[in-house]
Amino acid sequence: MSVSDDALCGLLDMLCPMHVVLDAGGRVVHAGPTLRNVFAQQPLSGRRFLEVFELRRPRGIVDMAGLRACHGTRLKLRHRERPRIGLNGALFALPDAPDLGSGAVVNLSFGISVVEAVRDFNLTGKDFAVTDPTTEMLYLIEAKSAAMEASRKLNLRLQGARRAAEEQALTDTLTGLGNRRALDRVLDRLMQSEQDFALMHLDLDFFKQVNDTLGHVAGDHVLQVAAQRMLSVLRAEDLIVRVGGDEFVLILVGLTARSRLDETAQRLIARLQEPIDHGGQDCRISGSIGATLSCGYETPDPAQMLADADLALYAAKARGRGCHVLYEPRLCDSGPGQGT
User: Fold this and answer.
1) CA distance 276 to 279
2) Choosing from 246, 277, 310, 333, which is the catalytic residue?
3) Which of 16, 202, 251, 292 is within CB 3.0–4.6 Å of 327 for a Cys-Cys bond?
4) Which fold has domain 3-127?
């Protein structure tokens, strides 16, 4: 190319970074920087324009003469190779361009596919002419993306705060176990799913003596250790709820066999009877357990099961504590439960 042609191409690179310059034979002699970026793996220079791009409108164009006849006409094109990019274009004949003869300039754009093109080819505002409205669209897209990302992060924080609030509302702050609200939620779910379960009412024996002799700080420590020991016995799907000072309700999901219930109760009692150290002093407690099975009711009712488990707990206390009693109808003749 002559100096004047180089100057022309440099000017086009700045004003129309998605252009191609064609010689009289319809070959690409120069491509704008954005097209060179997009087709970096398939260089355009030296190739026939109509072999690289399919002219979809107007149709029937097969040579350079036909292309030049499209001077000033709106073009619809598609790249023949992968990626099969759809493009818009406008062709301008160059009858007087030095060394190009009867060449042409074709200015291309992505049209409505610009968003996908920006994403697929990592394009930025620098790949478009400063007067191209695409730059404003890119700005809006970036602003929208930034706003959506900020909204996403805010939603995540709100969701986290909501989950934390929900967990706090369902958690006993001293032991980390569930509270009465958590118990109600689990029982409602079990009632709706009609899933069998065992319900235990566990009371810590001799806990009052710990509080009276060593103080409430020691008592809090004992409750925390007792909670962890009970968790170590039960399964992940089971629930332990602190319903009072030293009272707990345990839900054992899917457990219906009396033998397994008794085995679990004995393991709980054995773990609770292990001495708990506090400031070099042994705190000794035990556990009394009253239990009932949902499969023992024609239509299980949580309130009734809790009341029956409480009667069974009273019977366990009456038998000397540190034992487990399964509810039976004859226990209804017993009196109300008593403190530790």
Assistant:
1) 10
2) 246
3) 292
4) Beta-Lactamase (3.30.450)
Distance CA 183, CA 306 (A): 11
Domain spans of the chain, in order of start: 3-127, 132-169, 180-333
pLDDT in tens, the chain (340 residues): 444 677 778 888 888 899 999 998 999 999 999 989 888 888 898 999 999 999 999 988 999 889 988 998 899 999 888 778 889 999 998 876 555 568 899 999 988 777 778 777 888 778 887 777 666 666 666 667 777 887 888 787 767 666 655 656 788 989 999 999 999 999 999 999 999 999 999 999 999 999 999 999 999 999 999 999 999 999 999 999 999 899 999 999 999 999 999 999 999 999 999 999 998 899 999 999 999 999 999 999 999 999 999 999 999 999 988 999 999 988 876 555 444 4
> Maximum Cα–Cα distance for the chain, whole Å?
115
Half-sphere exposure of 143 (CA within 13 A, CB side): 6
Domain boundaries 180-333, CATH class: alpha beta
DSSP 180: H
How much of the chain is helix, strand and coil, in % rounded to 5? 45, 20, 30
- CA distance readout (Å), 92 to 8, 68, 111, 161: 14, 7, 19, 61
Q: Cβ(100)–Cβ(136) under 8 Å?
A: no
Can you list the pairs that 229-234 forms with residues at least 24 positions away whose Cβ atoms lie under 8 Å? 229/271, 229/272, 229/274, 230/202, 230/268, 230/271, 230/272, 231/177, 232/271, 233/264, 233/267, 233/268, 233/271, 234/264
Would you call 238 a catalytic residue per the annotation?
Answer: no
